[in-house]
Write a structure and sequence with these properties.
Strand content: 15-25%
Shape: globular
Oligomer: single chain
CATH topology of the largest domain: Rossmann fold
Distance between the termini: 55 Å
Strand order of the largest sheet: 3-4-2-1-5-6-7-8
CATH class of the largest domain: Alpha Beta
Radius of gyration: 23 Å
CATH architecture of the largest domain: 3-Layer(aba) Sandwich
Low-confidence stretches: 1-15
Length: 444
Amino acid sequence: MTPSRYIGPAVFGFETDLPLRRAAQISVHTSPLATLGGKDAGGMNVYVRELACNLAGLGLPVDVFTRRVSPDTPEVQTPCPGVNVIAVDAGPPEPLDKNALFPFLPEFAANMALYSLREGVRYDVVHAHYWLSGWAAMLARRYWDTPFVQMFHTTAHMKNAVAGAADRETDLRARTERQLLTLADSLIAANPDERADLVWRMGAPNSKVCTIPPGIDLTLFSPRDRALCRDALGIAPEERVVLFCGRVDPIKGIDTLLEAIQLLRERGADPMPTVLFIGGDLDDAGEPTGSLANVARQAQMLGVRNRFRFLGSQPQNQLPEFYSAADVVAAPSRYESFGLVAVEALACGVPVVASRVGGLKFTIDEGSAGLLVEMGSGPALADGLAALLYDDARRAAFAARARASVERFAWPTVADSIAHIYQQLANGRRSNLCHERPIFAEQA
């Protein structure tokens, strides 16, 4: 009897070089659909959603798994064609501090697997965002024999290097991240500094780490009519306007911004700038609440509360209007893996004054489209803001060059680079995975 041809389930190497069919992304602690500027909702949320939608645009469907934080959240939501955001039961369906989530990761991994079994889907690659998601991806290996990509976005090592004693990351996080360096099949760093840190300070295998920055939607973030934007926001044409956008988190350098505005007042800056502050929460009366109320109190103590307009969190699609109404955007962070706010502002034709840290050193063309200043220095930030606020010709020259300086971060370019890594992993490769056309010249 002639043996029949094998037509059973795939085994390793059986499907080499076939096109990618489906990918999973994991974002345990925050949903890509969360409102930006709230607790734990910022650039990473945008990254996960936009990457998934752009990969789907390349023909690769993506399922994004995130923890359910409300019993009313639908199991599946579709932010764009080809992408499902799946709410996974893990622990109580309510917001929890991210440091309380680790014990629920086995439940999260099991329920991801149950979803894929129920829906009859399998994944060619898994992409984990943040350390919690990386551990969930590792746990899911008992159900899915699938390679996984790890992107930390920030690491405990990098955050603790600039954090105060009260804001240090846990030993559990630091230990888990070091384990993931070995367990993950590939690591993506958002900038060359992060790559160097992963390889030389944390011991990641050099051949595993690729440098690919996040992307930006250049269609959404584009210059708008300044006068119309100001009129819509109730800003006078002659006002000098500084914009801050970000989570209310010590790593964002909000204390440095407050000090800089106080110094401008003490130096007799005329006119004093208005600060549009996007992020945090407002109560029903439109007043700052929670951690944002603490920022307002600090501004009051420094005598500059009347210079701040606290706008709370804003939808991403409305941010270009705020950027375009500003004269300059301040990004005084203590660390940024990329600096999404700075890149969005530049894409809208607005110059940026930012800390010389992390990804900001690589995304901002210093002295051409923006200025980089010493991290944590109120006087340095005040000098940088004044250099652009009160020099109309220089500010206009920076603005004219701003958009062109960030066009290399267009999402189609970034998604293509990520898809290249996915394909290499699905083909069975575990080294030399990086795209042959790196976005950063420093990429090896």
